[in-house]
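Notebook, student rotation project (T.W.).
Task set for the rotation: take a protein with a known small-molecule partner, predict the structure of the complex, and write up what can be learned from the model alone. Partner molecule chosen: fe (ii) ion. Sequence and SMILES entered below by T.W., checked by me.
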Amino acid sequence: MMRPMKLAGSQLLFGEGCLEHLKSLNTKRTSIVIGGSSMIKSGMLDTVRAYLQEAGAETMVIDGVEPDPAFSTVVRGAEQMKEFGPDLIVALGGGSVMDAAKAMWVYYEHPELTTLEELLEANPFPKLRKKAIFCCIPSTAGTASEVSRSVVISDKETGMKHGLGNMEMMPDIAICDPQVTMSMPDKITAETGMDALTHAVEALASTRANYIGDILATQAALDIFTYLPKAYENGNDGEAREHMLNASMAAGMAFTNVSLGIVHSMAHTLGGCFHIAHGLGDAMLLPYVIDFNSQDERAAEIYRQLAEKAGGTNLADMVRELNKKLNIPTGFCEVISDEAAYMNRLDDMAMAASADGCTKTNPIKPSLQQFKELFIKAYKGE
Ligand SMILES: [Fe+2]
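Predicted structure of the complex:
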């Protein structure tokens, strides 16, 4: 049976200049969550604060959210929020910042929650919005956390990454202004852009794919094939930045409703075991998984149609070609030097990928042996 779709929170803004929408928000106290220093250096933090002050808000900044945010970072941010008492939380940054801020929001709203396990096991999911509403301003074009119900939080003690998804965590406001993404370095542009392409391709092939998801994911994929090389080659290409941010958002609306496939299951696993950046893992795995899934007639036809619309014939080859333009390696042997360590963990990796939530909606559910074979191929770059 179809699950109800939710395409975004109550306010979705995109296009050049939409950041100014902040001026019209009804807020007295705003916490702004950022990562390292990129939003300070680009001047975006100052701009965001100035707009919020114009709206009449007092602002405070929670900084230092690291890539693959740890639970301890979530706790620190939530404590700062409890002291300040925001009625609006703004996440200004990439996927890690948006994910960490969403989790901070949950712990701010629910001081009775103190451990990660309590949230992972919470049933029903804790209700939000009694204290604050939540706004995302993405600085990368890929993870689409601004229109998704998911977060990924790392438990540094166990080395495990935990994914958690609930529509309660869908941001109320998403402000997708390409100006905010202009300062993104080329490597991040490439990797996050390939994450967005993977969202689109996996949403199309998902066993829960539907009419609206297909419309969003198809256009997103076509735009990414056209504009990702342009945004990578020239970060100041405003048109390419805008198309990439819109495509990422559209692919995000699709996948948060229809789910993904085993590229994500395997990328989550490699992220947990070998700290492979999420978008890089997706980019490298995608052609292998397209080839594997093509054993399924329905998936093969979906890939064929998308390739044709994008002006090619073989989707896996088109992704390989795009990766080449973006200087993304073909085999994990180029990024994980300890081959023995990789091969020794194949059983664990196959089990983790098989158990990942994204495997459920892949066109084919691979056996553990097939997962191992895919991990080996992707390592050797075959
Ligand atoms: Fe992703």
